[in-house]
Structures are given as C-alpha cells and as structure tokens.
Amino acid sequence: MASEKTKTKTQKQPAAENRAIGQDNFTEIGQVLAGKKTGAVSVRGWLYHKRSSGGLLFLTLRDRTGLLQCTLSRKTDTKLFDGIEKLQDESVLAIDGEAKADSRAPGGYELSVKSADVISAAEPDYPIAKKEHGPEFLMDERHLWLRDPKMQAMLKLRSAVMNIARDWLLKHGYIEFQSPIFMSAACEGGSTLFTVDYFGKPAYLTQSWQLYAEAAIASIGKIFTISPSFRAEKSRTRRHLAEFWHLEVEEPFQDIDGLMKMEEEFVSHICQTVAKECAQELKEFGRDPAELLAVKAPFKRMTYADAIELLKKDGVDVKYGDDLDWEKEKALTLKHKVPFFVYRYPKGIKAFYHMPAPDDPKVTLSADLLAPEGYGELIGGGQRTHDYKALMKRIEEEGLKASDYDWYLDLRKWGTVPHSGFGMGIERLLMWMLKLEHIRDAIPFPRMMNRIAP
Ligand code: 4AD
Ligand code: MG
Fold it and tell me: Would you give the distance in Å from CA 399 to the centre of its chain?
C-alpha cells in the first residue's frame, strides 16, 4: 500500500516518480515562511496534519525547515481534492501552488494548491499521531518521533554546536586527531568500562580519547576530537548516557590556568554564536537567546574546598572528600546564571593522571566547568602528571597495574612536557542550552542502561 503511488496530478507535471528524486525546482518551506519566496512555488514534504471544512482542505506540510498551511478548494479540482482527502498523516506530497502572506495562517503564509503529486501514501494509524504519549512510548517510536518539530530543532542545534566548536578550534590552530575505540586499559576507572570480546580476549570501549591524545601532542601539538565515548553507567540518572559524544582537547606546554582561560573563551564563543545563529531553535525550547549572550569570559572560579563550604552553608549533607554527584552539583549551580569553574579537587575523587598541586599535593590541578541552573558538569579536565616517577606513584596509589600503562608511561621517558586537556559532553552542553529535563533528548538515538533500540 504505502509504496504505491497514487496519481492525482491534473496539469502537465513530471511524473510523481521523477518528482521524488532530485532537488531542482523545489522551494523549502522556510523560504516561504520568511517571505523570501512568494507567488508560484513548488514545495515538497510530509503531511503533518489535515482537516477539511466545507469544500476546503487545510493541509499542513512539513519539511526540514518548517510547517506550511496549504489550502485546496474542491472547486479547483474535485479529483485531486478527493484523492488528498483520503491521505493519511505522513504521506509525502509535492505541491505546486501560489504562496502569499496571510495573517490567518499559523506561519503567516499560506499556499493555495493548484496541483499535487503523491510521492508516498502512508498507512493508516501513524503510531505517534498528534496526541499525548508517555516518554517510554516515544522512546520506542524514536525513529518516527525524530520528525517532531522539537526534535528537528534539537538535531539542527546539535549540528550547529559541533560545527561552531570545530570551526573555533581549527581557527585557533588545533588539529583534529582520532584515537581507537577499542582499548586495552581504562582511562576513567574500571567501574564504567564496557567489556567486549576482542578475538577471544577482553577489550574495552573507550571512555575517553585522552591517553592517545597525550601521545599525539608530541607529534602534532595542540589537538582535539569530537567522537563517541562509552560509559557503562549503572545508575539511571537524567544526565548519563552509555554512549555520548565527547569533544576533547589536549595541549602541550599548557598549565591548568591557561587551560581554564582557553575553555572560557571557547565555551563563550559557542554560546554567543548559538545565541545569534540559532535563536529560533532556542526559542522552541523556551531558552531566551539573551541568556546565552550573557555567557562571557572570564568565568568565575571556585575551589572544591570553597564549594564544599558553600554547600554546607546551604544545609547540604556533604564533607570534604566527597565526590560532587548530580544532587550536589544541582544545589551548587541552581543560583548561577552562567557557567563557572570548580577546581583543585582532592586526589581521591579524580583519575590517576591528574597532577597533584605542587603547593598542596592533597589536591589536583583539575577543573570542572559546571553549567548553571541546576545542570552541573559540562567539562572535566586539568593538568596531567608529566613526570615519570610522579605518575608511577599515582598509578601505585590507585592500585592500577603499571603494565597496563606501559606505552603511556613511555611518554614520560622521552620528551615529556607540562600539558593539559579536557573533555566536554556534547549532550550535556545541549541539555543545559535547551533546558532539557533528560539527557536522552539531546541525542537522536540514546543508549542507556535500559535502552539499546531503536
Ligand atoms: O569528566 P570525564 O569523565 O573526563 C574525561 O573523560 C577526561 N578523560 C576528559 C579529558 O580530559 N580529555 O568526562 C568528560 C565529560 C564530562 O564533563 C561530561 O560532560 C561528559 O564527558 N560525560 C558524559 N556525558 C554523558 N553521559 C555520560 N555517561 C558521561 N560521562 C562523562
Ligand atoms: Mg568528570
């Protein structure tokens, strides 16, 4: 049924099969809605909604740029009218007509239909027809839910954020570098490792590009990547994915102070540019672009010790040495309007590679960037231990097997230099920017403890 093409054309038009392929002669709906294209136009898209009133059909057509109201009078073409009236939601149409401004139409513009081709007639009972559905049902139907206008906005913003970030990094001299996904040792601790069978031996999916990046900086200097990282997160929180997109940076001859300066310039630039270029998408999620325009370097810096004192003052049950989990970061960031740093975390709660502070070896030269408004950690990073003996000591203290890190230790023997880097979760950034309740809505097909399909 669905693949059969219903012929409803009236005028001399190319066959529906031909109109289904190629980009020529079609106007995107956004062009019409922006008033850039009026008069005779051809549009193509999915039937989002349809209602008839008297002898008039109101069709809402969706493409990647928006929703357009199209009207067809029975008087124009009875056969066409009857054919389209029977169509189900999500059928695909190529429509020729006259576009004009009309204040009564939802987008301010309306297309009066002259002729149309049905490229694909959809089956009845579209699973997510416009009624209220619970989140788990929508997760099961994610492959269809992606067409929702809010999802469209999120997907566009995702693409924009990655491009803006990549563009800034390349312009500032960072080189893109790729590392393997299959790993033989942990970067971020054993508890969140995914084990896979690697030709009969256990291997792990990467948690971070960092260890390989530390090898590459001696070759190509300051570098970055944007790629997936994997964490077997056994707790079901609103901000943890099993697979997330990780933007990471590593830089030789860089200390913690310079790293924080770079991060605040970088994150401010992303926020400023998104505010200017993606205002429409932000508004779709109730984010006022002015709030992102307010994100400007330098960012406030707070030591971990001060953060603990602040939390205690606010009545949070916490003591020095505790990790700042979801709840604690929420309490800490709720009153803030822009991102800020928490730095100098104690040794016990940070990975082995973090450099102990020379003036106070209990704490590390680490820094997390926290998103405001209750969102919490966006970035984890810091200065690395570059001295061989000091790194060996940390590996022993953490009870790790030195032989797992043979090659990583080599880097400290030949040409080691002070260096620093960080990782930012793309979905964490989007979650905050779009004020999302749950991180799963910042990625098209989320992977979580209880979900691997679709
Ligand atoms: O703080 P993390 O664990 O740091 C690292 O992996 C470092 N090796 C990065 C580096 O220095 N190159 O993770 C970095 C960021 C977090 O701040 C968070 O934004 C994101 O990655 N992240 C997650 N995002 C979604 N789901 C998860 N399960 C995540 N775990 C970390
Ligand atoms: Mg972290």
Answer: 35
In this structure, whether the domain defined by 4-120 belongs to CATH 2.40.50.140 is answered with yes
- What's the pLDDT at 13? 52
For the Cβ of 376 lying below 6 angstroms from any atom of ligand 1, the answer is no
CATH number for domain 143-442, candidates 3.40.50.300, 3.30.1330.60, 3.30.930.10, 3.40.1000.10: 3.30.930.10
Tell me what pLDDT residue 272 has: 98
Residue 354 in contact with ligand 1 by CB distance below 6 A: no
Counting as low any pLDDT under 70, the low residues of the chain are: 1-15
SS3 assignment, position 36: coil
Residue nearest (by alpha carbon) to ligand 1 atom 24: 425
pLDDT at 190: 87
pLDDT for position 2: 41
Ligand 1 centroid – CA 424 distance (Å): 6
| The pLDDT of residue 165 | 99
Cis amide linkage into residue 180, ω under 30° from 0:
no
Q: What is the pLDDT of residue 129?
A: 86
Q: How far is the CA of 204 from the centre of ligand 2 (A)?
A: 19
The distance from CA 188 to its chain's CA centroid, rounded to whole angstroms, is 22
Q: Which atom of ligand 1 is the closest one to the Cα of 439?
A: 25
Report the atom number in ligand 1 closest to the C-alpha of 210.
Answer: 12
Q: Whose CA is nearest to atom 19 of ligand 1?
A: 425
Spell 250-284 as b/e; 16+ CB within 10 A means b: bbbebebeebbebbbbbbbbbbbbbbeebbebbeb
